[in-house]
Design a protein that fits this description.
By secondary structure, the chain is α/β, with parallel strands linked by helices. It contains 21 helices and 13 strands.
Length: about 500
């Protein structure tokens, strides 16, 4: 049983009451076999809303309600709210094998994997369900349960109506999307804290994209585990957030543990948390974080959902992601409003703001729901190389010798499209790039051999430029790219020989 003695029921705000009425009206109007998806930003009160919907449904439809979650913390949170508003409910966890007492409960909360196992053993494990509510509906793991409740209504709720699996869009299972209040409206109405965003350019060269479409943990560990990135994190914290209660999101455990070690050496109160912690240790860390005024918590993949600590003052994204959902989940951990907290700070160390836009920006979620492929393609294509996410960062030694400003002033894509606008061949952009490299090296070299050494040291920048060109022409086979680099270097070397050997 869940202890609800100390739990105060959360009352609905006016916009939440309107939402409940709208959703119930949609369900009544469309009847059975109608599935509805509801979007509301993190911190907008989805649990309060769907708990009240469950209460109304049970009272008016006289049928049971089943609520699906993927984390035990979400199950407990939901159960407490339901109990506090007078809805008798039961959590189905791994310990519950049978439900002889199911007629005593009008509402059940179940972990998706546990319920799936029970339903495969007995498809009537929970019977007479009229409404299935899916929390965090963007996770496609829930759809395995839908086959058992084809005669029921399904209501999915999520902050980001984009499936976690691009091949399984949400519009396969939901007939309609209702979009709730926007982030900016919730801020303006005093329901969410506003974010003050601080971005730091970082060199993400070396990140690799995995089969799930996001950057791999292994490549992220290599990028974020190095000394320079750790120093940049510490610098950003000391410049923006020192003394704030701070939550740091990392991609890998090794990186997070190094963050903890570095901050401890500087005397800052910090603890590390990841999914390998026992329930007891996790509760201990979270309790410490809650009670410590200027605490820093560095974490990995565990606090994006089911975690609610309104006193967080700063969020640090010490990682890069290609997931718009994860981006919003992480930032949302800082958006809870308190009487003395109308804003929080966001520090981005993964070029995420450049990739997705400011957190408060308007997003056309109807477009995302109806045309998910088009929506995602317009923001970030699968074939984008990480080199296009960042500006090239020159090694310190080259910065001191070369005219970096002149190199940075040349943008391959801009030059390429300018050539096309002038009815010239796009290949001229490569010639102009070569001329730019030549002029900078020629100005810095003492003689031909020194020039060749500089050309060798600039190979990463040459590859960076030429990758931009191959993207422009949509011709990026390995053989062609190799040919392009070899030709470019040969012509650049010849140009340097013709001028520097005579000087």
């Amino acid at each position: 049983m869940i202890d609800t003695e100390l739990y105060q029921a959360k009352t609905l705000y006016p916009f939440q009451e309107n939402t409940v009425a709208t959703i119930l009206e949609e369900l009544e109007k469309n009847g059975k076999n109608f599935n509805l998806l509801y979007q509301l930003p993190t911190g907008g009160g989805k649990t309060v809303i769907f708990s009240d919907i469950a209460r109304n449904y049970i009272e008016n439809w006289k049928e049971k309600v089943l609520i699906l979650t993927h984390r035990i913390e979400l199950s407990v949170q939901t159960s407490k709210q339901l109990s506090a508003i007078g809805v008798k409910n039961k959590i189905i966890n791994s310990e519950i094998k049978t439900l002889e007492d199911q007629d005593e409960y009008p509402c059940f909360i179940a972990m998706v994997e546990t319920l799936n196992n029970r339903l495969h053993d007995d498809e009537n494990f929970i019977k007479d369900v009229g409404l299935v509510i899916v929390d965090e509906a963007h996770y496609n793991s829930f759809r395995k349960i839908f086959q058992f409740y084809e005669e029921a209504n399904i209501l999915g709720v999520t902050a980001t109506p984009l499936s976690s699996n691009r091949a399984l869009p949400l519009n396969d299972n939901y007939h309609k999307l209702i979009v709730g209040e926007s982030i900016s409206n919730l801020i303006e109405g005093g329901y969410l804290s506003d974010a003050e965003t601080f971005t730091y350019d970082v060199n993400l060269h070396g990140l690799k994209i995995g089969s799930n479409g996001d950057f791999t943990v292994s490549s992220s560990e290599l990028v974020y585990g190095n000394y320079f990135m750790q120093e940049k994190l510490l610098f950003a914290y000391e410049e923006v957030a020192i003394g704030n209660k701070t939550l740091i999101f990392n991609s890998g455990i090794e990186t997070s543990m190094r963050v903890e070690e570095m901050f401890k050496k500087r005397g800052y109160p910090i603890r590390h948390l990841d999914s390998t912690f026992s329930d007891k240790d996790r509760k201990d860390v979270l309790s410490w974080f809650k009670d410590t005024k200027d605490a820093i918590l560095t974490s990995v993949g565990i606090l994006t959902t089911g975690f609610d600590e309104p006193t967080v003052e700063t969020i640090i994204l010490n990682r890069a992601t290609r997931s718009l959902t994860l981006y919003h989940q992480m930032i949302g951990r800082g958006s809870r409003r308190l009487p003395n907290k109308s804003s929080f700070k966001l520090i981005d160390l993964g070029n995420n703001v450049r990739r997705f836009g400011i957190w408060q920006d308007y997003i056309n979620w109807q477009d995302a729901f109806k045309f998910p492929d088009r929506f995602l393609e317009s923001r970030l294509t699968e074939s984008d190389d990480i080199e296009f996410e960042v500006e090239y960062e020159f090694p310190k030694g080259l910065k001191e010798r070369l005219d970096v400003e002149k190199l940075d002033s040349f943008n391959m894509r801009d030059v390429y499209y300018e050539c096309l606008d002038n009815n010239e061949k796009g290949k001229i952009a490569v010639d102009l790039s070569l001329e730019n490299h030549y002029q900078v090296i020629h100005a810095a070299a003492n003689d031909f051999f020194d020039g060749i050494d500089l050309q060798t040291a600039m190979q990463e920048h040459v590859e960076y430029r030429l990758k931009q060109y191959t993207k422009c022409i949509s011709k990026s086979t390995n053989n062609y790219f190799k040919f392009l680099i070899e030709t470019y270097n040969r012509q650049l070397r010849q140009k340097l020989r013709e001028t520097l050997e005579d000087e």
